[in-house]
Amino acid sequence: MSQPEQASYVYAVTRPLPSGELGKVRGVGRHPVHPVEEDGLVAVVSTVPLNEFDEDALRANLEDLRWLEETARAHHSVVEALANTATTVPLRLATVYRNEDRVREVLRQDHAMFDAVLRRLSGRTEYSVKVYADPAERAAAVEAPPQPDPGESPGKAYLRRRREQRERQDDTWRVAADLCESTDAALTAWARARAQHRPQDSSLAGVPGENVMNLAYLVAAEDVEPFLTEARRLQDRAPAGTRVEVSGPWAPYSFASAEPSGSREPDGDRV
After folding, report:
1. N or C: which end of the chain has fewer CB within 10 A?
2. For the whole prediction, is pTM greater than 0.70?
3. Across-strand partners of 45?
4. Could you give the C-alpha distances from 259 to 19, 134, 148, in angstroms and in order?
5. CATH classification of 125-252, choosing from 3.90.190, 3.40.50, 3.30.70, 3.30.420?
6. Closest listed residue to residue 195, CA positions, set 244, 242, 129, 133
7. What confidence tens digit (pLDDT) does each residue in 10-36 have?
């Protein structure tokens, strides 16, 4: 029985790695990863079945949440393993080429771009900083509103409660806006670059409050300690009903800015 046609799934680009550095790292579909080297650059690749990543199959798979989650986790785990040992340019999910010769061609063709990004990321890592606001938590923490007048009518009592609720919410958003501004200013001072992302849906993440700021910072190794010290200070001083969350270090997805030629092209020259 003939073997199914194969394709090359590329996770990231880095510099040449020591022999055996990738060890037993596994990628999408539990396929082993290996280096493909060309002109001083290395693409980290898995050989995958073409019929899982051709145009029709990939379109269907990207609609399959289970497949998408498993593939994203595997992709990220390979990138993180690389980033722990070497400067790494992560590529987007499902960057696939027909074969390794084409991967080498891309490394030659886009050498200047990859080299520039690797130089920019060298010795630097990404940290994620989010600010959350929770009006209910703030309302419970601040001074209780005045008690209603015993003679107050039900209609007036309802309007008063709605007004107080709006005032508490407005107060939360004002405080949160100030916290976002001061947090960004303080942490930008220790970062080489910053990237703004859309706020995340807190209900999907299973965390309380509303995400009102979602930033990434590119931090040099020598600035990590003061960056995190400042972040802890901001966390400790966050007003009631708000909080600052910092995570990392991460592979620098937010700062890679690398879109190689002809990615996702198992059906030909399609980008």
Report:
1. N
2. yes
3. 10, 34
4. 27, 38, 62
5. 3.30.70
6. 129
7. 999 999 988 777 778 899 989 999 999
